[in-house]
Amino acid sequence: MEFKVLDKGFVKLVDMLGNDFSAVRAARVSYGKGLKTPEKDKNLIFYLMKHRHETPFEHIVFTFHAKTPIFVARQWFRHRIGSFNEASLRYTELKDEFYIPNHIRVNDLEDKQKGIIIEDENLKNRALEIIEKSLEDSYKTYKELLEMGIAREMARIVLPMSSYTQFYWTVNARSLMNFLDLRADSHAQWEIQQYAIHIAEIFKEKCPWTYEAFLKFRYKGDLLKNRE
Asked: What is the number of domains present in the chain?
């Protein structure tokens, strides 16, 4: 499963270990039991989620490949219970790929965690013009340094946070739900919200019972329930 995100990014599922039944088997091992009927297995998942018995969900593991602006990746990497491997600009040359938004936001004076999309076309166009010129200048400087023979690891210091990076993320379902709880929410930055929404779609497709129970008992955000 793969989704295009933002202007040049993506997120895709590249590997997976387990499913809803993995959590059921892990929970019932305490009693020396295994799978029963679909109805009883689903009810157990709902019971586990409702009562916060979440360790069985650690036996469901996803590996994603994501392409994001660097500032999104840095927010993503704060979710420490997971494994990350990122492309290195010490060994590869950055392509001319930068995130250019299709809208401009200003600060919400009543909520510091939110930005408000502006309707003023003149202000939007002026801001985008400044952003694009800055990106062009920084990439031109980067290329000039490389052509001078400056090492990639030094030339990269002029690159902006909107440069695209790629990484692999391996995470269990329990930690994935924590990610969605925080990032599939209007208080998160808009750009990472877009990735979280698509990851939720993958989660829903691969573990429908766990996802349904998550929304009913665990999820505190405000974006995913509106999509149901």
From this structure: 2
pLDDT in tens, 166-225: 999 999 999 999 999 999 999 999 999 999 999 999 999 999 999 999 999 999 999 998
| Any domain includes 95 | no
- 94 located within any domain: no
Helix (H) or strand (E) holding 165: strand 164-172
| CA–CA dist 68, 98 (Å, integer) | 10
What are phi and psi for residue 166, nearest 5 degrees? -130, 150
Q: How many CB atoms lie within 10 A of CB 124?
A: 17
pTM of the model: 0.95
Question: Which pair of structure tokens corresponds to residue 125?
Answer: 């166009």
Average pLDDT of the chain is 95
Residues carrying an active site annotation? 183
Query: What is the number of other CB atoms lying within 10 angstroms of the CB of residue 63?
Result: 16
